[in-house]
Amino acid sequence: MIRNRLILLFLILAAGAFASFYGGISYLPLFILLILPVVSFLYLVYVFFSLRISQNVDERILYKGEETPYRFVLVNEKMIVYSGIQVSFKSGLYEATGLEENRNYSLLPKDRVEKHAQIRCLYRGRYPVGVDTITVTDFLNLFCLKRSAGEEIPVQVLPRVVRLNRLAAAPLDEDAKAVPFSMTHTNDQPDVESRSYTPGDGLKMVNWKLSARQQELLVRKYIDTPKTKILLIMDLAEIRPADPVTRIIIEDKIIETSLAIANYFVRRQTPLEVFYGTDRLQEVSMGIQDQSSFERFYKTCSDIPFRSLADLPVLLKNAAYQCSGRSCCIAVTHKLDGELCQAAENVLSLNIELCIIQIGGEQQENNLRHNLDKRVRFFRISKEQEIAEVLDAKQGGRIL
Question: Which strands sit side by side in the sheet containing 94-97, from one edge to the other?
Fold first, then answer.
């Protein structure tokens, strides 16, 4: 475009010099060269405002990673040729197959261009997809105008649930045993005492040696064993400073990580308590004991806003003081600072096991990590990593 402008300027100067020497009809090329850019710009403005575009997707609500058909149409309703039309698409949050970036379109009178593609959304959240801007260039390639595509196409992308085979962030005793805990209050460990057999007792409970000595069918008495209480704390504070794409990516990974951890314990029949803050300085506690309560948690996470006014250190402190007996806190956050390090020390002083999972934060100072108590198990998941690469011990997940 700059080259064309320089060529036009050179031709105008040359035509002006020629006309100044010869006069008369020699001014005609100068007038033509002066009028041409004006006509070209008026053509550009006309096309810019008269071009019509429409676009749609088949599904407005879909799961992360799911594909949906997409279509956009450029329409020329006038009797002149449209040329130099270029469309650009919103990028960073989805992949599109079948779309050609930076292609110039030309439309004959009463013509239309229709393009089909498959869109696959990469992150949880609510955001627009499709054509972002339209750039129109005049036929001399001297000027260009850019405008938005008009009405946006927002999609609601639901989070996925990642299945972790062995959670690297699980409590140390639970991880070592690698066996599910009981979610009921039924007895699970045999005591040395026995009692008389009653109908309904399983044969595996019968103490055959003692029964033979006592000449009576006796079964072992079972007692409860203390279980580690799991606390999952989600940091839903606004993520800043961050561009919209980075913000959505980090939000997606915080939600995905929290769902994967909750799903892991539900599958292993281990109850847990989830804590998070809201935009009204309230703290929400949600118990998850079975699949139905996990589904309620999933529904909450599908559209929960990141506008919490409660800082993670405060949430961590309040959740820890509600603990009794053996407990383990797992905090999922995007921010590691001095206040969180201090709160971690307070939690550890209550003999509570603590694990912190940081999403992003690659550019934060390394000394913040060193300020954490060595007893805190710390994991970092970058924006580019899959959470299973870090949190699934069977895939090499490990503490940093």
Answer: 52-57, 67-75, 112-121, 94-97
